[in-house]
Amino acid sequence: MPKEIRNSIVRSEEVQDILSAPPxxxxxxxxxxxxxxxxxxxxxxFIFRYPDTIVCTVTITNSEPPVWVIAKSTGRMQELYVNDxxxxxxxxxxxxxxxxxxxxxxxxxxxxxxxxxxxSEKNISLSTTDLHLGNIQNSYSxxxxxxxxxxxxxxxxxxxxxxxxxxxxxxPYKGYVASIEKQVKYSQRINTLSSTNYRREKxxxxxxxxxxSDLESIEQMLLSSKMSAEQMYSSLANAKIQVxxxxxxxxxxxxxxxxxxxxxxxxxxxxxETVMTVIxxxxxxxxxxxxxxxxxxxxxxxKVNQNINTGDRAFSVVSNTKQKVIGKAKIPxxxxxxxxxxxxxxxxxxxxxxxxxxFLTGKVQSVSAMSDEDAYSATFELSEDVFTSYGKRIGxxxxxxxxxxxxxxxxxxxxxxxxxxRYLFHRSTxxxx
Length: 433
What we know:
By secondary structure, this protein is of the alpha+beta class. 50% of the residues lie in helices and 21% in strands.
């Protein structure tokens, strides 16, 4: 529009008043409202907080998790002893896989062998006949021979008989030695008296009171007594030698007896250990036993004559004792340094939709120092009675998987806005220096 025309426009008096006098009250009130809102937002930035979270995968189980009973051989299920959901003790036989041995015969033999005592010198009896042991038969035959040899040694008792015979000879020799020792004492006394008599007779002879023949007669008696004493000494020595020989024979017999007994006992123990080892291998191969006390749950097997393959999970046993509920979380490396013990973790279970059931809450107990497969392992614990945020109880029977959120730093909005500025400031300062 031309300037002349614009200047010539005539406005009304009301319009002139509005344009010439701004509404001061409206401006002041609006500015106050906007300033108040900005102030509230600023204060709210310091008051309102929300936490950081680390998302991870979690697995929840009991402190004694369910145990799988895995087949160690392939074949038909020959016998089934336990029903589904039945309580069993540790070691209970659940089922038997088809094999050449008779289960009752093997278990009976195992019970008998478990009570063996090799320290007592008594007959050992297997008390078993017509056993069907399958692959255990050869080892059992070797054990039977060892038992027979050991029993023959104990029953025949040949060494004890020979020892008794030698001891029977020893007693008379001891009496004979005692008798000869008495005779030696008597001979020594006679020899003493003969020597005294000879000296007396020689003194008389030297004085000319006796004849030479009388002296020679007395001397002959002295020599005779000395010869008799020497014979007694020789007899005593021979008797003691005989006693020593008998004692040596007895000692040798006892040594031979102990050596043979030790040899037979060693052979018996070796055969026993071999049979026990083979029985244990048979148990591990063909018996499906409960490793813990708990409740049996059928998995892939449920009837006799059903086929089973090596490595199949036949049954599971869930402990029926009250225990703690624990969990493992795989923390990604990114942000893992923020996860500390004592922090809370919220878990959304895969099998329980969180919109319907809610989520579980746990507390971090420990965090691994090293990562494994680009993740750190964290252990957390839940209460024994596991209730969700909606108050619904979750029964921890087996392993449960889900997604967890570890609540880490609880920062305000202002701190979150300042943190990038602080980082930029420090970065610019470091780069400048």
